[in-house]
Design goal:
alpha/beta; single chain; 281 residues
Length: 281
Amino acid sequence: MATVPAPKGLDPSASLAALYGAKLRKLRIRAGWTQRELGDKVPIAHSRIAQFELGKEVPHPKVSDRLDELLGAGGDLKDLREAIEKAPYVDWAVKYIEYEAKAIAMHKYLSQSIPGLLQIEAYAREVIGHAQPWLTAVEIDLKVAARLDRQKLLARSDPPLLWAVLDEAVLRRPVGGPAVMREQLLRVLEAARKPKVEVQVLPFSAGGHASMGGSLTMLSFKARPDVAYLEGGALGELVRDRATVARHSHWYHSVHAMALPMGPSVKLIEQLAEDYGKCAS
């Protein structure tokens, strides 16, 4: 008879998300339910319950409240969820930011938004507010301030190389309206004039490509192997396995090869900034 594999071990001290997951698993086991049974009661896919328990994903507040109610947690899951949300960065981003601060080069493909290191305040506020609509105004302020503070990296005496490939959708989606987009694109153009910032556009005409699933960042260092950071929606994953990092590096370079050269890229961004200006006036 086949044996049932033991559940993956959890380290509640690793992060708030891991603590939430350990608490959730403990309550579920105490209730005598499988992940599938709990998922059916929410209702939500049992694979999501597994992700919650492993600390790889944090449930939406309404889902967390339902889990709290079903498992008789007495508000413990709700309180943990609120603590996670009030932190300036979600757990999976904390380690990435530590790596980012030590990188000598960052190569990025952005599928949906301007990179955080180049965002203006109004644009960042729109992106964060839409991604996490349950946040209070004060919580959004804290997250915006934390994002803008990261931009000090590019003001250092010896800043890292930032090479960003922006999907054309990033430029054409009017986040915050025409006035905000005009200011944001002017900020990108200003950054692109700096020695260690390069910006290219992946046009719609390029068609399908290897990184259509989300945004990708490759970080390089002086004395350690490269790492990859995958981001999509409200999820992120830091990849350190060398073989997997190499595969993502190949995907990034294939996208980079399909992008417009820097001259035509800048001209397209200038044209769109001008178009947004006309719409805003």
